[in-house]
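Hi there,

I know you've been waiting on this one. I reran it after we fixed the sequence typo, so this is the corrected version. Both the input and the resulting structure follow.
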Amino acid sequence: MPLARLCRPGQLIGVDMDRASLAAAAARIRSQAVSVHLVCGDIETLPVADGSFDTILDFGTCYHVASPERAVLEIARVLREGGLFVYETLLNQLMAHPVLSVKRLLPWSAAPGLRPHRWVGLWASRVKKAAAAG
C-alpha cells in the first residue's frame, strides 16, 4: 500500500460507512501485509475523540455527503492543532464526476480554523490553526 510505505504513519485508519467496501479493503490490506485499522463510520459523526489525527486524507467524500458543512466541521474537530487536511480539489472532482460535481464547493466558512495551506491543481491542503483571539 503506497500510503503506508511512503508516509510510514504511526497508525493508519480507514473510515467508510459501507461494510462491503470495508470488507474489500480488509482483503486487499491482508494481501499486502499492512497494518490498517478499518472503522465503519460516517464522516459527519466520526467515532473518535477531538484532536485524534495529525493528518486526514479525503478522496472526495466531502463533496458527496448530505451535509458537507457537518463533514468539514467534523474533520476540524478530530484534527489536532497544526494537523493537515488533504483533499481533492473541485477540479479533480469535476474530472472524476463531471455531472455530480457541478456547483459542489466545500463550505470552508463552516470551519474557519481550517486555513488554506497548499494547492497543486488536483489536490489541496488546509492546516488547523487556533482561532484568533479577540
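Quick highlight: Residues 50-134 form a domain with the Rossmann fold fold (CATH 3.40.50.150).

Best,
R. S.
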